[in-house]
C-alpha cells in the first residue's frame, strides 16, 4: 500500500538513517520504536508528506489517503467542538456542493451537442458515483459517537473549542482523523492526553475499524493491544519484526546477544591482524603480506552492537524517616472553581506504605485534589498529614521549575548526598543522559529530558510520601520501567496520578476514582478497577 525505498535522511550534518526499505500493507498495525532521537517522529512526517527533506522514494497507489496526528499541532478555535470534528467530512460536503452546482448548470444549459456539455455530464456522473460509494453514512451520529468515545460530554459538543485546554483540543483533532478513517493512519503519541477509559475506547476503534496504522507510543499496554508488527529504528537502520512489542523485545535481546558474540569474534580477529602487522611491518620480505592485512582491516565491515537496554538497572529512592501510620487523611473535602463544583465530600485514608492511584477522566479533579493536599489552592473540608510526613511532589509542570543556568550534572550534584554522589554519572546514564548530555545546560534540554531530570532530583530527596502527578509523561519505555522498579522498591507511601495501565499494573493496590463529582475507593490493582467499571456498565 505504501512503499518506502532507499530512504536516507541527514540532519545537522549527520545521517539519521539510510537505505531504509519497507512496505506498509493494508491492515498492518505497526509500532515504530527506538530510542529518543532515533528518528521516529521524522519517519512519521516523511510518511505523512510533511517532511520532504530526504532521498529515496515514498509511494502509494492513486487515491490512497494518509492521515497524520502529530504530538503538537496548531488547532482551530473558530468553531464549536461538533463543528470542528465535522470538518472530517469537508471533502464530502464539498462534493455535495459541487453536484448541486452542476445540477443547476444542467437545468439551464441548452448546448446539448457540445463537448463542454458532454464533459459536464461525465463529471456529474463520476461525482454521483463517488457520493454513492459513501452514502447512508450518519455523519452527525458518527461525530457525536466519536467525540463521546474520546471523553467529551454531550453538553460539551456545542461549546467553542477555545473553552477547552490544549489536551482536549487535541482530542478533537484525533476525532477528525478517526472519522476520516484514512487508508494509512499515522499517530505520534496519541494517548498523551487521554485517560484510561478513553485509551481503551481508542484501542477498540483501532482494532475493529482502522485500516493500516503506524504509531509511536510510550504506552506499552496500548501498543501491545493494537499492533501486530514492530519496526525498530536504531543506529541508522531499521529492523522489521512481524510481532507485537513484547515479543519484539525478546527477539531484540536475542539479536543483541548474537551481535555481541559476532563483535567479540571480530575484535579477536582484528587484534590478531594488528599484531601480525606490527610484528612484520619492518621486514621487507613480509611487505606484501603486511599490506594485504592492512587492506583487509580497511575493508572489514565492523560489527555494531545495539544500544544496551538499561531497564534492568535498579535505582532506589533515598530512605526517609518513618512516618505515622496514616500519612494522609481527608475528611469532607469539597472544591469549587467559582460556581463550578469539581468534587464534594471526598473522604479517604491512606496507610503508611500504601501505593494508590487516582483515576478518572480528565477534568474530574485528580490534579485539583493533589493541589489541595499540597495546599496550593483553597478548599473546604479537612486534610491532615500524619506524624513526621515529608512529601516529595512531582507536578505536571515540575520540569519547568528547574534552574535553567545549571548543567544536568550540577542539578543532581546539588541534591545528592553521601555515597550517592559517586554514582551520579551512573544514575544519569540510567535515565538516558550520556556523558556529553550531563554537561548540557538545562535551558537547552527538550521537554522529555527536563522531565527525566526532575524525576532524578526527586529520587535523591529523602521523603516518605511521594505524590506524583503524571510522572511518565515524556518518559520512554525503558525509563518508565526504571522508575517503576524504583517505586516498587520504595518503602514509603505513594500517591500516583497516571493513565498508564502498564505502569500502574502490579504497582498500586488501591484506586480512588474521581467521577460525577465524587471520589470512590476501589480495592485492588488497576485492572481490578477497570473490570469493576466494566461490570458496572454491563449491569
Describe the 3D structure.
- The protein has a six-stranded mixed sheet, with helices on both faces.
- β10 (328-337) and β11 form a beta hairpin.
- It starts with a strand and ends with a helix.
- The chain is of the alpha/beta class and 539 residues long.
- The chain has helices at 40-48, 81-86, 90-108, 115-132, 139-149, 166-180, 196-208, 220-226, 245-280, 287-299, 366-373, 408-413, 424-430, 447-459, 477-489, 501-504, 526-538, and strands spanning 2-11, 14-24, 29-33, 55-59, 66-69, 184-188, 212-216, 229-234, 237-241, 328-337, 340-350, 355-359, 380-385, 391-394, 465-469, 493-497, 510-515, 518-523.
- α3 packs antiparallel against α4 and α5 (139-149) packs across α6 (166-180).
- It is built from 17 helices and 18 strands.
- The chain is 39% helix and 21% strand.
Biggest sheet statistics: 6 strands, mixed
Shape: flat
Beta-strand residue fraction? 15-25%
Q: Uncertain segments of ≥5 residues (pLDDT<50)?
A: none
Counting H and I runs of at least 4 residues, what is the number of helices? 17
Separation, N- and C-terminal Cα atoms: 43 Å
Structural class label: alpha/beta
Q: Evaluate the radius of gyration.
A: 29 Å
Helix content range = 25-40%
Give average pLDDT, whole number: 87
Question: What is the spatial order of strands in the main beta sheet?
Answer: 5-6-7-3-8-9
What is the number of strand segments?
18
Amino acid at each position: 500500500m505504501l512503499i518506502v525505498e532507499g530512504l536516507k535522511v541527514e540532519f545537522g550534518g549527520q545521517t539519521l538513517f539510510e537505505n531504509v526499505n519497507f512496505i506498509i500493507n493494508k491492515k498492518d498495525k505497526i509500532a515504530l520504536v527506538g530510542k529518543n532521537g532515533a528518528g521516529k517522529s521524522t519517519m512519521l512526517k516523511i510518511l505523512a508528506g510533511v517532511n520532504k527533506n530526504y532521498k529515496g522514494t515514498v509511494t502509494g497507489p492513486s487515491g490512497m489517503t494518509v492521515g497524520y496526528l502529530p504530538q503538537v499541532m496548531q488547532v482551530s478555535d473558530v468553531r464549536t467542538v461538533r463543528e470542528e470534528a465535522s470538518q472530517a467530512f469537508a471533502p464530502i460536503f464539498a462534493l455535495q456542493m459541487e453536484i448541486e452546482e452542476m445540477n443547476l448548470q444542467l437545468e439551464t444549459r441548452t448546448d446539448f451537442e457540445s463537448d463542454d456539455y458532454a464533459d459536464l455530464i461525465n463529471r456529474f456522473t463520476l461525482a454521483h458515483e463517488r457520493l454513492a460509494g459513501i452514502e447512508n453514512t450518519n455523519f452527525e451520529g458518527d461525530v457525536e459517537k466519536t467525540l463521546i468515545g474520546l471523553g467529551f460530554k454531550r453538553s460539551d459538543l456545542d461549546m467553542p473549542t477555545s473553552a477547552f485546554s490544549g489536551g482536549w483540543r487535541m482530542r478533537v483533532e484525533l476525532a477528525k482523523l478517526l472519522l476520516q478513517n484514512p487508508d494509512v493512519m499515522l499517530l505520534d503519541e496519541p494517548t498523551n492526553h487521554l485517560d484510561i477509559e478513553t485509551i481503551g475506547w481508542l484501542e477498540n476503534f483501532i482494532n475493529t475499524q482502522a485500516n493500516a496504522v503506524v504509531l509511536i507510543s510510550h504506552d506499552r499496554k496500548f501498543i501491545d493491544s493494537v499492533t501486530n508488527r514492530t519496526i525498530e529504528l536504531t543506529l541508522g537502520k531499521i529492523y522489521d519484526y512481524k510481532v507485537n512489542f513484547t515479543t519484539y523485545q525478546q527477539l531484540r535481546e536475542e539479536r543483541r546477544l548474537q551481535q555481541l558474540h559476532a563483535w567479540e569474534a571480530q575484535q579477536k580477529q582484528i587484534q590478531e591482524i594488528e599484531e601480525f602487522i606490527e610484528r612484520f611491518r619492518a621486514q621487507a620480505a613480509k611487505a606484501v603480506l603486511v599490506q594485504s592485512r592492512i587492506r583487509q582491516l580497511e575493508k572489514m565491515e565492523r560489527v555494531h552492537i545495539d544500544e544496551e537496554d538499561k531497564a534492568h538497572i535498579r535505582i532506589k529512592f533515598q530512605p526517609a524517616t518513618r512516618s505515622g501510620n496514616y500519612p494522609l487523611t481527608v475528611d469532607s473535602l469539597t472544591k469549587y472553581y467559582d460556581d463550578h463544583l469539581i468534587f464534594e465530600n471526598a473522604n479517604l485514608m491512606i496507610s503508611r506504605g500504601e501505593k494508590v492511584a487516582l483515576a478518572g477522566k480528565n477534568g474530574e479533579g485528580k490534579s485539583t485534589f493533589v493541589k489541595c493536599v499540597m495546599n496550593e489552592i483553597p478548599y473546604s473540608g479537612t486534610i491532615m498529614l500524619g506524624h513526621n510526613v515529608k512529601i516529595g511532589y512531582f507536578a505536571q509542570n515540575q520540569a519547568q521549575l528547574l534552574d535553567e543556568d545549571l548543567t544536568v550534572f550540577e542539578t543532581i550534584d546539588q541534591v545528592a548526598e553521601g555515597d550517592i554522589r559517586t554514582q551520579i554519572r551512573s544514575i544519569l546514564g540510567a535515565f538516558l543522559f550520556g556523558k556529553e548530555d550531563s554537561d548540557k545546560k538545562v535551558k537547552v534540554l527538550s521537554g522529555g529530558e527536563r522531565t527525566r531530570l526532575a524525576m532524578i532530583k526527586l529520587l535523591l530527596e529523602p521523603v516518605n510520601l511521594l505524590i506524583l502527578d503524571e510522572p511518565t509523561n515524556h518518559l520512554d519505555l525503558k525509563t518508565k520501567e526504571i522508575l517503576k522498579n524504583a517505586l516498587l522498591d520504595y518503602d514509603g507511601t505513594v500517591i500516583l496520578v497516571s493513565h498508564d495501565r502498564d505502569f500502574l499494573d502490579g504497582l498500586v493496590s488501591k484506586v480512588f476514582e474521581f467521577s460525577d463529582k465524587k471520589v470512590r475507593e476501589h480495592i485492588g490493582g488497576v485492572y481490578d478497577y477497570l473490570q469493576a467499571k466494566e461490570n458496572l456498565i454491563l449491569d
